# Entry
Amino acid sequence: MKTIVITGVTSGVGRALVEVLCEKGEKVIGVGRSSDKLDRLKNTLEDYEENLHLYQADLSDMATVNEVINRITDDFPFGIDVLINNAAIVPKYKRMSTDGFELQYQVNHLMPLYFSHRLEPLLRKRKGTIITTSSGAHKKAAFDKHDLQALKKYHAVRSYTRTKLYNLMIAQILKEKYHPDINVFTVHPGRVKTEIGTKDTSLLYAFLWRLFTRKGFTPREATKTYLYLIYGQTVDKDALYFYDAKPASFSSIVNVHDSQELYTISMRQLNLK
# Structure
């Protein structure tokens, strides 16, 4: 039995992963923002109640995230096998978190790094795996170290693509830093029919998102690559970015120098060493 932590579990790919992994008999630790949705998820999966552990945390509030990570660390002292950093948002308007960061920058970028760093000791105990949900949209992003949070001119989609680029850049550093004890991967799940493009946005944005994903994968179909990285016997552990259960090409912008600079700045912002 594997012990697997997943963020963003109340909808989309995160919820589908919880369902599939519970069905496989794994111990699933889910983190979500809405307590009501977590309750509904728990009721839906009541047959797996013994192995399903749900925690409420708002990733835009570091204090609640810190509390939940402390609880997970106390509750599962023997280690975890997999961490899936899946939670993400795409708010239409620029908003700042309670911690003073642009919301997408904190939830989509800083929190995967924070979870990875804080849960590193538990992952090392099991020679575990970190999987972060990136996106093919990262290829449209630019890297501007002087405006990492895109505060000068916010645009929802542009900021989203930027944070998905950051996911790859941070994973590049963690892969080298944690080798060989922890495997580090990023995933492009594909065009998935999820709610991410319809939350906290305009009617027009929501309509365009539904149109864009109309012929996309279902969330359960999108779990394919994650399951391959968890169970596959022939995974290329040197590869950084995966799509459709195989290594894929990624933006040439991703380089060790800029990735290290982003990592250093982000760790400082999180007050981590």
Summary: The radius of gyration is 17 Å. The chain has a mean pLDDT of 92.
